[in-house]
Design brief:
alpha/beta, Transcription Regulator spoIIAA, 4-stranded parallel β-sheet, two-stranded parallel ribbon, 4 helices, 6 strands, globular
């Protein structure tokens, strides 16, 4: 199994939180983590800047030949991902348990 890291942003996922998450992802890749799960349990809202940060993070992870998955999206986040078709790009799980069940298979 690939080594993994779970990141949990909080509050409003905007430019500031997006930039912080991008740095955490870059650091995680540099530390050798091959799979990153972003758990959105504690995110109440995401704007377009937050979505842009996720897309940039996705590119960083793919360049490093690593994997990026998301879980625990609230209804607002699900709608944003569906409207932008990002739900077809990102691997999205209901919760961390579902994520681990899938990466262990």
């Amino acid at each position: 199994m690939a080594n993994h890291k779970i990141l949990k942003p909080t509050g409003i996922f905007d430019t500031d939180n997006g930039t912080k998450l991008r740095q955490e992802i870059t650091n995680s890749i540099a530390e050798g983590f091959e799979t990153i799960l972003i758990d959105f349990t504690d995110v109440s809202f995401m704007n377009s800047s937050g979505l842009g940060a996720l897309v940039a993070s996705y590119k960083t992870v793919k360049t490093a030949k690593a994997n990026l998955s998301l879980c625990n999206l609230n209804d607002q986040l699900k709608i944003i991902f569906e409207l932008t078709k990002m739900d077809q790009i990102f691997k999205i799980f209901d919760n961390p348990e579902e994520f681990f069940k899938n990466i262990n298979n």
